[in-house]
Design goal:
Order of helices and strands: EEEHHHH
Strand order of the largest sheet: 1-2-3
Helix content: 25-40%
Oligomer: single chain
Number of strands: 3
Strand content: 25-35%
Radius of gyration: 14 Å
Number of helices: 4
Structural class: alpha+beta
Distance between the termini: 37 Å
Largest sheet: 3 strands, antiparallel
Length: about 90
Protein backbone atom coordinates (compact mmCIF):
# COMPACT_ATOMS: atom_id res chain seq x y z
CA UNK A 1 0.00 0.00 0.00
CA UNK A 2 1.51 3.38 -0.96
CA UNK A 3 2.27 6.02 1.65
CA UNK A 4 0.17 9.15 1.18
CA UNK A 5 1.34 12.49 2.56
CA UNK A 6 -0.50 15.76 2.90
CA UNK A 7 1.69 18.74 2.05
CA UNK A 8 1.36 19.90 5.66
CA UNK A 9 2.85 16.57 6.84
CA UNK A 10 6.02 16.71 4.69
CA UNK A 11 9.17 17.80 6.50
CA UNK A 12 11.55 17.71 3.54
CA UNK A 13 12.06 16.24 0.09
CA UNK A 14 15.47 15.12 -1.14
CA UNK A 15 16.39 14.56 -4.78
CA UNK A 16 19.65 12.84 -5.68
CA UNK A 17 21.45 11.59 -8.77
CA UNK A 18 24.53 9.38 -9.10
CA UNK A 19 25.25 8.36 -12.68
CA UNK A 20 22.07 6.54 -13.81
CA UNK A 21 20.76 6.02 -10.26
CA UNK A 22 18.28 8.63 -9.02
CA UNK A 23 16.09 8.84 -5.96
CA UNK A 24 13.54 10.97 -4.21
CA UNK A 25 13.32 10.70 -0.42
CA UNK A 26 10.33 12.20 1.37
CA UNK A 27 10.36 12.67 5.13
CA UNK A 28 7.24 13.54 7.03
CA UNK A 29 4.78 12.73 9.76
CA UNK A 30 1.69 10.59 9.43
CA UNK A 31 -0.51 10.34 12.52
CA UNK A 32 2.28 11.92 14.56
CA UNK A 33 4.81 9.25 13.57
CA UNK A 34 7.98 10.00 11.60
CA UNK A 35 7.85 8.32 8.17
CA UNK A 36 10.37 8.18 5.30
CA UNK A 37 9.58 7.07 1.75
CA UNK A 38 12.11 6.39 -1.01
CA UNK A 39 11.44 6.34 -4.73
CA UNK A 40 14.31 4.97 -6.83
CA UNK A 41 14.39 5.38 -10.62
CA UNK A 42 16.69 5.63 -13.64
CA UNK A 43 18.25 9.08 -14.15
CA UNK A 44 17.18 9.13 -17.79
CA UNK A 45 13.68 9.94 -16.53
CA UNK A 46 14.62 12.48 -13.83
CA UNK A 47 13.33 15.53 -15.74
CA UNK A 48 9.82 14.10 -15.39
CA UNK A 49 10.08 14.52 -11.62
CA UNK A 50 11.46 18.10 -11.55
CA UNK A 51 8.03 19.83 -11.71
CA UNK A 52 6.69 17.54 -8.97
CA UNK A 53 9.69 18.22 -6.71
CA UNK A 54 9.49 21.97 -7.34
CA UNK A 55 5.75 22.09 -6.58
CA UNK A 56 6.19 20.01 -3.44
CA UNK A 57 9.02 22.19 -2.13
CA UNK A 58 7.00 25.35 -2.78
CA UNK A 59 4.00 23.83 -1.00
CA UNK A 60 6.16 22.95 2.01
CA UNK A 61 7.41 26.54 2.22
CA UNK A 62 3.94 28.04 1.75
CA UNK A 63 2.12 25.82 4.26
CA UNK A 64 0.72 27.54 7.31
CA UNK A 65 3.41 26.85 9.88
CA UNK A 66 2.01 26.66 13.36
CA UNK A 67 4.39 26.28 16.31
CA UNK A 68 3.74 22.57 16.75
CA UNK A 69 4.56 21.82 13.12
CA UNK A 70 7.80 23.84 13.27
CA UNK A 71 8.85 22.01 16.43
CA UNK A 72 8.28 18.61 14.79
CA UNK A 73 10.12 19.47 11.57
CA UNK A 74 13.44 18.33 13.06
CA UNK A 75 12.22 15.48 15.28
CA UNK A 76 13.44 12.87 12.79
CA UNK A 77 17.02 13.99 13.60
CA UNK A 78 16.68 12.59 17.15
CA UNK A 79 16.94 9.06 15.75
CA UNK A 80 19.74 9.91 13.33
CA UNK A 81 22.11 12.03 15.36
CA UNK A 82 21.44 13.68 18.72
CA UNK A 83 24.31 16.17 18.28
CA UNK A 84 22.90 17.34 14.94
CA UNK A 85 19.40 17.56 16.44
CA UNK A 86 20.62 19.74 19.32
CA UNK A 87 22.60 21.98 16.95
CA UNK A 88 19.62 22.39 14.63
CA UNK A 89 17.30 23.17 17.53
CA UNK A 90 19.61 26.03 18.61
CA UNK A 91 19.51 27.54 15.13
Amino acid sequence: MPTVYKFSEIVDIEFGVIMLYSWIKIRGFINGESVTSNLVFNSVQDELFHPIIKATRQAIICCDGDEIREEHRIDYLKKLNLKLYNYTKKE
